[in-house]
Write a structure and sequence with these properties.
Elements (H helix, E strand, L loop, with lengths): L2 H17 L2 H12 L5 H13 L3 H18 L2 H17 L3 H15 L24 H11 L20 H21 L25 H11 L3 H16 L1 E7 L3 E6 L9 E6 L2 E6 L12 E4 L10 E4 L4 E6 L20 E2 L7 H10 L17 H19 L8 E2 L1 E2 L55 H16 L2 H13 L9 H4 L19
Parallel strand pairs: 1-8, 6-10
Antiparallel strand pairs: 1-2, 2-7, 3-4, 3-9, 4-5, 6-7
Helix pairs in contact: 1-2, 2-3, 3-4, 3-5, 4-5, 5-6, 5-8, 6-8, 7-8, 10-12
Length: about 525
């Protein structure tokens, strides 16, 4: 059978299973699998076998898929295959075995080493009955992870769209653990469903595909080795992601990295002209494993003016722009791939990842010399980020230039800016430069206009008053607390610059309309 014919049979089989035509799906997938052992096809046929009550065949397919996934070092496939294995064993009423396989799938989503022997299958009493109990698993689920366990005994949120694939796998593993242990608790002591029959985490029977089959299978499916790197990268990114936010004025930026319960000594920041490093210290751990958070900036800053404060819920970093103007964003192109930061839980897209790889001039995965992912995912991920960052620096960034250690405003009184009522250290007023604009909020995409540089027809016009107004609003904005600044920003932007409020109590619930001055008319942008 030609490759095209094999794929056609497989696609038709997958569609048949999805539509509930299980017998036809099994027939078509079997024809494809006779030529090509693809783990995804095996798992779909396993699912179909379960639906037609052929549980032994379902278990056999799940274990074949697991064997191939292990050879490839693909943790996602390993977790999926262990779940299919758990489901087949559950249908066979081998509830203790089902819980062990679901536990192994859960451990893989946690980043455990693929071959690590956790001793789970040896947790039996003197009569050989499996020890773990339902209430223990519920308590662990509630303690360690959302989703919480509902009154029905299942994790809340199952069936909804999950934030990521790894969370979906984890929730499925918890669900099947709870179902298996619930069923096992109803059995009398000594029942076969309470016994462990599994001898290996990864079975290696004569029915499994040969090594040649596996090599050919990998060669056929892994057309682009970067796809596997992306899959593994995405898994680790979700494990280590950190929420952040930022806002900017014409002269500076404020970045918030949301990390809880750090002391001021547990974060150090190094500042460069176009990048900053946020480094864990004194035993702290946050962000990517084994290294700092590195943010490659969209434009240049004055590293000498960088300040930061470690608070109970976040690290606040204040940057001064080298040239006063609005930036298109915080980071340079593709930099989000290497810093593990997210806004509104947005994750990098596969297209962004591939474009980043191309832009950095990488052609082969072997160029990165990555360690084995299945053995230690965290080490693999840390090495990947380190290598990609080095490519950024080699290309056109400046982290190889002399660094400047940022000033921690919580540890020194030298040149400390005036604090607000809540202790926030504000960006100090910068020196006035040609082309600069005011630092108060603006609704203009191009930043605030500098009226000082305009040519005035009336040379007798008194411009000093206008300058005083600019200075007045700058001072109000810079010296205000967070609520006042939010009120000023909201009222100014919503009204298109025709209103300015300093009361957040009023501004928070009010929608501001454009109110042009007498003799002027507000027009919509066309």
């Amino acid at each position: 059978m030609s490759s095209a014919s094999v794929n056609a049979h497989a696609d038709a089989g997958l569609r048949a299973v999805a539509k509930g035509a299980y017998a036809n799906g099994i027939k078509l997938l079997t024809q494809a699998l006779d030529t090509h052992n693809a783990p995804s096809w095996l798992m779909e046929r396993s699912k179909a076998y379960v639906r037609v009550d052929r549980y032994a065949d379902a278990l056999d397919d799940a274990e074949k898929a697991l064997h191939i996934a292990l050879d490839r070092g693909n943790r996602d496939l390993m977790a999926d295959a262990q779940l299919r294995r758990a489901i087949a064993l559950y249908r066979m009423q081998k509830f203790a075995d089902a819980d062990v396989c679901a536990f192994w799938a859960y451990r893989l989503t946690e980043g455990a080493k693929a071959r690590q022997d956790d001793g789970q299958r040896n947790m039996v009493d003197e009569n050989g009955d499996y020890i773990p109990r339902l209430q223990e698993v519920k308590a662990e689920a509630e303690k360690k992870y959302a989703p919480k366990v509902g009154k029905d005994g299942l994790p809340e949120g199952i069936g909804r769209t999950e934030r990521s694939r790894i969370e979906s796998q984890r929730n499925q593993a918890l669900t099947w653990r709870i179902q298996a242990l619930t069923a096992m608790d109803k059995l009398p002591l000594g029942h076969d469903g309470r016994k462990i029959h599994l001898t290996e985490m990864y079975p290696n029977s004569s029915n499994l595909p040969t090594s040649n089959d596996t090599v050919q299978d990998a060669a056929d499916e892994a057309v682009d080795p970067w796809e596997q790197v992306w899959t593994q990268y995405e898994t680790e990114w979700h494990k280590h992601k950190l929420r952040h936010s930022f806002y900017q004025t014409d002269t500076g930026l404020t970045i918030d990295i949301f990390v809880k319960n750090l002391s001021p000594e547990q974060a150090v920041i190094e500042s460069y002209p176009d990048a900053i490093k946020i480094i864990p210290a004194q035993g702290a751990a946050f962000g990517p494993p084994g290294g700092p958070i590195v943010i490659f900036l969209a434009d240049r800053i004055d590293p000498q003016a960088t300040k930061y404060t470690v608070k109970s819920m976040k690290i606040e970093v204040i940057l001064k722009k080298e040239t006063p103007r609005k930036w298109s964003g915080l980071r340079c192109r593709h930099a989000d791939i290497v810093d593990n930061l997210t806004i509104a839980n947005r994750a990098p897209h596969p297209t962004d990842f591939s474009q980043c790889i191309e832009a950095l001039g990488l052609e082969k995965v072997s160029e990165l010399q990555l360690p084995n992912y299945a053995t230690d995912p965290s080490a693999w991920y840390a090495t990947l980020l380190q290598k990609l960052r080095s490519k950024f620096s080699d290309r056109d960034r400046s982290t190889s230039q002399p660094k400047t250690e940022a000033h921690n405003s919580a540890q020194s009184d030298i040149s400390r800016p005036r604090p607000t009522s809540d202790g926030v250290r504000l960006v100090p007023p910068g020196e006035k430069k040609s082309g600069g604009g005011p630092a108060y909020p603006t609704s203009s995409k191009n930043g605030p206009k500098n009226w000082d540089n305009m040519d005035l027809d009336d040379e007798d016009e008194d411009t000093s008053k206008e300058g005083d107004v600019n200075s007045f609003f700058q001072q109000i904005y810079k010296d205000s607390d967070d609520d006042t600044r939010r009120a000023m920003m909201k009222s100014f932007v919503e009204s298109n610059g025709t209103a300015l409020s300093t009361s957040w109590n009023d501004a928070s619930s009010k929608t501001y309309k454009t109110q042009p001055p007498d003799g002027a008319e507000a027009k919509k942008w066309e």
